[in-house]
Amino acid sequence: MTENILTTTLDNGLKILLKEIHTSPIISHWVWYRVGSRYETDGNTGISHWVEHMQFKGTPKFPAGVLDRAISRDGGMWNAFTHLDWTTFFETVPADKVDLALDLEADRMINSIYEREEVDSERTVIISEREGHENEPLFRLDEAIQTAAFATHPYRNEVIGNMKDLHTIQRDDLYRHYQKYYNPGNAVLAMAGDFKVEKMLDSIKNRYIHNPGHKLPFPQIIPDPVLQKHKQLEVKGPGETTFIELSWRAPAATNPDFFALTVLDSLLTGPTSLNMFGGGGISNKTSRLYKALVEKEIAVSVVGSLQATVDPYLYNITITVRPDRDAATVLKAMDTEIERLLETPVAQSEIDRAVKQARALFAYGSENITNQAFWLGYSNMFDQYDWFLQYVDRLNAVNPMLLMEKARELLEISHRVTGIYVPDGGQA
Amino acid sequence: MNSTNRSLNVSSIPGPQDIKRKVLANGVTVLARSNFNSASVVVSGYLGGGSLLDPLDKLGLAHFTSLALMRGTQKHNFQQLFNELESVGASLGFGASVHNINLGGRCLSEDLPLMTSILADCILEPTFPNEYLERLRAQLLTSLTIRAQDTAEMASLTFDQLLFPGHPYGLPEDGYIETIQRITQKDLVDFHKAHFRPENMAIVVVGAVEPEAAFDLLENKLGLWQNTVEKQIVNLPSITPPKKTTRKHIPIPGKSQSDLVMGSLGPKRHAPDYLAASIGNNILGQFGMMGRIGDSVREQAGLAYYASTSVNSWIEAGSWEVSAGVNPVNIDKAIHLIIGELEKFCSEPVTAEEIEDSKSNYIGRLPISLESNSGVANSILNLERFSLGLDYLQRYPSLINAITPAEILETAQRYINPKNLIIVSAGSKSKRKWQDADRD
């Protein structure tokens, strides 16, 4: 897979990736920062996400509200996301309106105001966002599992942050975080769409050349050692449905083992789409765990989740237990199925199938210009764009022997956290 | 920043020049638009026969039937069906709304013959095997117990019940626990036999395929289908606006956040004031950071993570809703702010600036909403569903540009009376005060 991408880095450290696509009069423009919950310390959890919110509160040039209005008026779609390793802001706009998006991102990279009143008002908004998450049993279970799976690595915290920190973080904490991480030396600008790269590059240079950049030392966080003893935990809460989540340490995206685990995930729970926009997913009714749990009438659904991250994060399998069955029955069937994977080599045809599914998901994602621009930047948050280009080939390189070896290494029960959401049956 | 989007190059917008339509001899309507920019194809469609045909004691039957279509057919059992699809990375699914059984799928263009073959197989010859119906029933019942814990869903469901009493719009398409338990295999077989028919089916194919090839594939698979059972006519009760404000709280213990849904009737899709309501709604609770309501409830008061409005328009009527997720202690405060915004919306025309912003937004975002195959397929399906004409998307900018502030005010007054609202919240009772939220 090859593509014509212009990649360059300005003197101030801003990395730029540009891809011309002339199928629709649209441009998708993304600015990515290497900051997320990975960069947070105790007492400051959730600060990256809160900073992302504050970036919509205005600069002297684009006061709050003017920003929304300006982009929306052009019919643009825009949003921002904060995750473990990164924070990103994007605008997808009609091609002739892209100047506004360029102006806006260059400006708010250094000129956001962070008024105290806005910080206070946003505090309750973010607390409300967290409360919305807390309504979900799976958020509560996830949070408990992350805490159990990591002893010290910041991946142990939810991106939204701990409630206590959301009450205590102050304006100056937010502003310091912003000043430290929001600069061209810590950013990647990615664009795809209906433009000419040479002209667009000039246009970007004109906007950023005067922004001083400072390259931040990349924080090397020592990964927590893989668990050596199986942990099992319970979270009690409202409802009548039991959920189980199994969690193993996953390799970092740059580790070749990541691709073996991707194939394992596909066999166990069906393929996971890494596209953020467009494409949808592929059902998983012929996956091994669906057959072993849902077809055997002990669960009603099973899904897997694997993410591309800088440091080793988690591979999760989430199961919704049938109301007339219990967690122990499901866990026993699960263990039998995982054991089969560790003991019996899979057929090459199963690997070929996983590769075809991945190829289809990539084709679906490429319908959409926003998703193509997303990949240009996203891949740079944990590796390079080549990671994306070589993805299918690297899945193809996985063979049955390697798969069994990696399954034994990665999916060993002693490395696992098992979380069970125990419903109170409407007794709360 | 003063630029506007009030015009658009319509030649790039799907229209009669590139949407091809063919009605098969048996009445199945097929629409197709090519896009060879990626190797994928999206299929989207509907048949008549939604939840409005459900007997009240078996509510959820249409939904159950739609999901059971893929549990086995004369030619394939469940695992064979999904093995064929999943092996090539294709997806296909069915569901039900009030008026329709809906279908959607996606595949690489090389696999479109396989996809259409399976799709036809599921529609024409499902066997509804008992073993799979029981598995599916367990899944549906579990979804309903999860729904009972979902504050947003329960608020919305109760809002619909109160707004559309005695009408299928007021009933959940997925039914209730007791109605799902009553449904038998025979009910599914009978529902399929009586209500699945070619003359009320429309299907759209968008992607890397020539329209003629798509027509041939579907004609080959669906062209001979007939249903000679007499069509059932449903007489729906009339819908009248709320005559007073009704306030209801659904207690769901143990929840950190409560969800609020409030509002009144909205226009049906065919109503002449539909677009005026839509633009007005954009100003009220969509534009920028969720319009006036978002500005008041989220940006100014910091009471909610989300607070927005929607106009939902169907064939018989519609709803005009405000939704917000708030801490239990802030519900009354949020309701107060929202009613204030509704009063203003119904008593003063929107400003020239507001209407220009929203018109520009609507026209500018059209190409973005049409950038993916699924976006185009859904738009074309709506053209067919509501008989809007194949040139509708190209006429759309001029229709939007013609709307005036006076028209929006009249439309708002026609549908919303801030003194007669349905107001529903769901969640825990408030227990505590914020240490920092008493700022009114």
Please give a handful of descriptors for the protein shown.
heterodimer; A: 428 residues; alpha+beta; Cytochrome Bc1 Complex, Chain A, domain 1; 6-stranded mixed beta sheet; 5-stranded mixed beta sheet; 11 strands; 18% strand; globular; B: 440 residues; 2 domains; 15 helices; disordered C terminus
Q: What would you note in describing this structure?
A:
The complex is a heterodimer of chains A (428) and B (440). In chain A, helix 1 packs across helix 7 (171-181). Chain A has two domains: 6-208, Metalloenzyme, LuxS/M16 peptidase-like (Cytochrome Bc1 Complex, Chain A, domain 1, 2-Layer Sandwich); 231-423, Cytochrome Bc1 Complex, Chain A, domain 1 (2-Layer Sandwich), CATH 3.30.830. Chain A is α+β, with helices and mostly antiparallel strands and 428 residues long. The longest helix of chain A is centred in the first third of the chain and has 19 residues, at 116-134. Helix content of chain A is 41%, strand content 18%. Chain B is α+β, with helices and mostly antiparallel strands and 440 residues long. Chain B folds into two domains: 14-222, Cytochrome Bc1 Complex, Chain A, domain 1, CATH 3.30.830; 246-427, 2-Layer Sandwich (Cytochrome Bc1 Complex, Chain A, domain 1), CATH 3.30.830.10. Chain B is built from 15 helices and eleven strands. In chain B, helix 1 (61-68) crosses helix 7 (185-195) and helix 10 crosses helix 11. The longest helix of chain B has 18 residues, at 130-147. Chain B is globular, with a radius of gyration of 23 Å. Chains A and B meet through helix 2, strand 5, helix 4 and helix 12 of A and helix 2, strand 5, helix 4, helix 10 and strand 9 of B.
